[in-house]
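Memo to structure team: turn this sequence into structure tokens by end of day. - J.P.
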Amino acid sequence: MRIGVVVNPIAGMGGRVGLKGTDGMVTEARERGAEQRAPARAIDALSALYERAPGTKLLTYGGEMGANEAREAGFDPEVVGEPEGENTNTKETSASDTREAVHRLISEGIDLLLFVGGDGTAVDVAETLSAEGSEVPMLGVPAGVKIYSSVFAVTPKAAGRVAAGFDRVEEREVNDIDEEAYRDGEVRAELKAIARVPVAESLQSSKQLGGGTVESLAQGVADDVQEGVTYVLGPGSTVGAIKAELGFEGSPLGVDVWRDGELLARDANEEEILAVLGDENVIVVSPIGGQGFVFGRGNHQLSPAVICRSTVEIVASKTKLDGIGVLRADTGDEDVDESLRGWHKVRVGRFERRMLKLS
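Reply from structure team:
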């Protein structure tokens, strides 16, 4: 097996600092104290690949675009090129670097293109493969803030395990959204490409954009509000209805913090959330339709540090829950993910709850 690897090292940097994406926002993300997350997730994926198939021939791009992470995972990769600039370890890479890396990797003859990033990276990879007329399958390691495409494994380690051995491929969707509109609270998703992807149970579905009525659900949460408790309210229309029921206009796609009738932080980043948490805190989140993720997709502000200081209440419309077979979490911290696993009572109405497993 010859696997090509390309890493977008800046993917996902905007998440925990509240930028909801990194496209064109790397400088601001750094100014807010953002740290890279893609290289570590690449190492997790490649370590899982090495554990299962240490004899895999790995071809990568240089520096943090693949070579560094491959070596950290135990591989001795063949480097097919370098990103522009002399210092490849610190340079801010671009979409053109990703596209050139894919071009060089497929020209070397590979059986799979394993990429690390988000939807923007997936588009760059898929469009380059299509332009080259290549039928090489692609597989994503989730590292971006927003992941609407169905070409990603559910976790980095799952991606490594899938890459280690698959025997079939199928066509799946590559979607992306307008990040500027997303930051303003509007979701504009667009189908960008159809890609060949390994068949595996541990791949996520495309995100569903539809919803259902949630008025009674929102009333139920408002009825149960307790004095002195800090409520950390996640993004999305379902939780947005709860914010409205509590009497304030929240950030549609951001995280808001509320306590005793006062909005403590609107569209808050991780640091701002931690600063206003109290002695007792409740995170209210709704799973992504069609995927089931409650953490790790579009809400990186709800970091392991925030989760560890809070209890979690999951809410969802009946329509959304009917399309979800299981709940998922991908916080980047295995201990936190493990602590979240198990059965959860998901509120679906003012009084009604359903049991659903997080695995």
